[in-house]
Input
Amino acid sequence: MTATISRLYDSYADAQKAVQRLETAGVPHSDISIVANNSNGWYDGKKDRDGDGVDDRAEAAGTGAGVGAGLGGAAGLLAGLGLLAIPGLGPVVAAGWLAATAVGAAAGAATGGLVGALTEAGVSKDDAPLYAEGVRRGGTLVSAKVADAERARLDALLSPSSVNLSDRKAAWTKSGWAGYDPAGQPYGADQVRKERALHGTR
Output
């Protein structure tokens, strides 16, 4: 039996470290996924992360789904980042199984997009919209499929620097948030910058 573990991070750098910890612990690249907000174009100048001499964005476009062809390659999950758009989230940088599933869910599921992909993977219906809202507001989501027997150990590797979902939900609700709307407008660059400033990230 397998389980899905997920964490939201305000900083892409913190999410990157979490992915690297999972890889070091032996979790296969194919079982890890990362989805990061790209509304402010932080990724746009990084054209060849996997070092193969080909613009990663061209590779992504070639797949039709907007996810880089080198996902989970020998250089690690993060070398295969590609650009895509998910309804309600806008432009994101993503790699791994969750990104591909989110594109499919957006095309064919009523729940759609990232929420549909997360719930399909076993994330609770309470947490999935919070993760999606977190990405919408500028965050980065890391998810991994792990064996039940390894869940506690690997889940602990994701905890450092991750967002406390309950606290974040309370803050959003206090500011008037009524729940994640997959049909809502994605955050623009200025909104993302303001949101990140609230939480001390750039």
In short: The CA atoms of residues 2 and 150 lie 9 Å apart. The beta strands are 2-9, 32-37, 82-86, 90-96, 140-147. The chain has a mean pLDDT of 81.
